[in-house]
Specification:
The protein is α+β, with helices and mostly antiparallel strands. It contains five helices and four strands; from the N terminus they run βαβββαααα.
Length: about 140
């Protein structure tokens, strides 16, 4: 499993949350390629909401990142009872986790893998540093 977590103070920052999804995808692809797994589960937690993803290699150089489910996390003990209603979603995550194992046909998987984008510009965009002077990759034309 791989994941990214953001606090309550950053839940409205769409740019950071989308970068987290790109990072989860990149780490998942690297994990599939390096460890020859059939799939990897990614977790994206923003404030008190967790979203689970499953990433797998389906064809030559074609990776799919599928959203499994989104569940709210309990805020305190009083919300634990209502948390039981999300067990069906968690069982689905457990079913996908059984597919997160080393591929039985390693040669086929090795032949299908693709390298991650490794340009300086892409690395600069997805870096997890907090450099406030870094250029914004989004350009608006008025």
């Amino acid at each position: 499993m791989v994941g990214e977590v953001k606090g309550e103070d950053q839940k409205d920052d769409k740019y950071i949350c989308l970068l987290d999804l790109v990072r989860i995808g990149c780490i998942s692809v690297d994990t599939v390629n390096l460890n020859l797994y059939d799939g990897v589960i990614g977790i994206h937690v923003v404030a008190l909401q967790a979203t689970f993803f499953f990433t797998t290699l389906v064809a030559d150089g074609f990776y799919v990142m599928l959203e499994i489910c989104t569940i709210p996390l309990p805020r305190d003990v009083t919300e634990l009872r209502s948390y039981i209603t999300y067990f069906d979603d968690l069982l689905t995550v457990i079913q996908y986790s059984s597919k997160c194992e080393v591929c039985s046909d390693k040669k086929t998987l090795e032949s299908m893998t693709a390298r991650k984008i490794s340009t300086p510009e892409f690395d600069r965009v997805i870096t997890s540093s907090r450099n406030r002077r870094r250029e914004c990759p989004i350009v608006y034309h008025h």
